[in-house]
């Protein structure tokens, strides 16, 4: 028996990287999984992989910055599998620039995906979780949301700090609904998001010196 037998999970940013690993892990543990992304080809490929292995899995197009997409995702989840128990707000983007070189457009974009997306997902999921008798919301933040960074990622760090505090507020406001909310704060994980840094040997060697284990994490090892 799996730890998530009988549970239904919705995961954003689930087509690749950490989100895809989360979808696979949840499926292995017995959950029915709905996962959304804007990378439709990769998402449909993962759906076929999971279903081919006997899992209950559904991919759908999900732009986390659009409230209508979130409402449709929750409705699809409940319609397909009867309820919603777990939400993983995983979708996120990253760009690197100094504060002076950060454009207003880029600032608004990263805030929309990394912060507004978490808010909209949480807002859409709460009624369904309340109806299910409770649930768990997991927000993927970052160590960047805990400490400052010299890596020209001030905007990214700001979004992850916002996710951390929003998580705390969600947990407090919905404890009586039986809805738990926690944030996860990984260090650098080897995904497409940081592949530019991984290929820059000198920059990466400097980064490794700040990591206690002296190596980058992997999506599989972080779960």
Strand-helix topology:
Blueprint: E1 8-12, H1 17-28, E2 32-37, H2 40-52, E3 57-61, H3 67-81, E4 86-89, H4 104-131, E5 135-140, H5 154-173, E6 179-184, H6 195-198, H7 201-208
Parallel strand pairs: 1-2, 1-4, 2-3, 4-5, 5-6
Task: Provide a quick synopsis of the model.
The chain is an alpha/beta fold. The chain has helices at 17-28, 40-52, 67-81, 104-131, 154-173, 195-198, 201-208, and strands at 8-12, 32-37, 57-61, 86-89, 135-140, 179-184. Helix 2 links the parallel strand 2 (32-37) and strand 3 (57-61).
Q: Could you characterize the architecture of this molecule?
A:
- The chain has about 220 residues and is α/β, with parallel strands linked by helices.
- The chain is globular and about 50 Å long.
- Helices cover about 45% and strands about 15% of the residues.
- Strands 3-2-1-4-5-6 form a six-stranded parallel sheet, with helices on both faces.
- The chain has a single domain, classed as 3-Layer(aba) Sandwich (Rossmann fold).
- The mean pLDDT is about 90.
- The longest helix is centred in the middle third of the chain and has 28 residues.
* CATH class group: Alpha Beta
Reported by name, the CATH topology is Rossmann fold
Can you count the beta strands?
Answer: 6
Q: From N to C, what is the helix and strand string?
A: EHEHEHEHEHEHH
Mean pLDDT: 89
Beta-strand residue fraction: 5-15%
Integer tally of domains: 1
Supply the helix-strand structural class.
alpha/beta
The best one-word shape is globular
Counted by DSSP, the helix tally is: 7
Query: Describe the biggest sheet?
Result: 6 strands, parallel
**Radius of gyration over alpha carbons?**
17 Å
Give the strand order, joined by hyphens, for the main sheet: 3-2-1-4-5-6
Which consecutive residue ranges, at least 5 long each, have pLDDT under 50? none
Helix content percent band: 40-55%
């Amino acid at each position: 028996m799996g730890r998530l037998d009988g549970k239904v999970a919705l995961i954003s940013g689930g087509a690749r990287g950490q989100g895809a690993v989360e979808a696979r892990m949840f499926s292995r543990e017995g959950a029915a999984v709905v996962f959304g992304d804007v990378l439709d080809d990769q998402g449909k490929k993962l759906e076929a992989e999971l279903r081919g292995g006997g899992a209950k899995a559904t991919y759908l197009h999900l732009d986390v910055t659009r409230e209508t997409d979130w409402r449709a995702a929750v409705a699809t989840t409940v319609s397909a599998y009867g309820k919603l128990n777990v939400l993983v707000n995983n979708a996120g983007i990253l760009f690197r620039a100094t504060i002076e070189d950060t454009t207003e457009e880029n600032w608004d974009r990263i805030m929309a995906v990394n912060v507004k997306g978490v808010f909209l997902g949480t807002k859409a999921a709460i009624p369904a979780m309340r109806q299910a008798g409770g649930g768990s919301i997991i927000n993927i933040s970052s160590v960047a949301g805990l400490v400052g960074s010299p890596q020209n990622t001030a905007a990214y760090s700001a979004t992850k700090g916002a996710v951390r505090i929003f998580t705390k507020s969600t947990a407090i406001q919905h404890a009586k609904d039986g809805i738990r909310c926690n944030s996860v704060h990984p260090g650098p994980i080897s995904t497409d998001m940081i592949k530019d840094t991984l290929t820059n040997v000198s920059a990466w060697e400097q980064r490794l010196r700040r990591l206690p284990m002296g190596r980058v994490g992997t999506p599989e090892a972080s779960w």
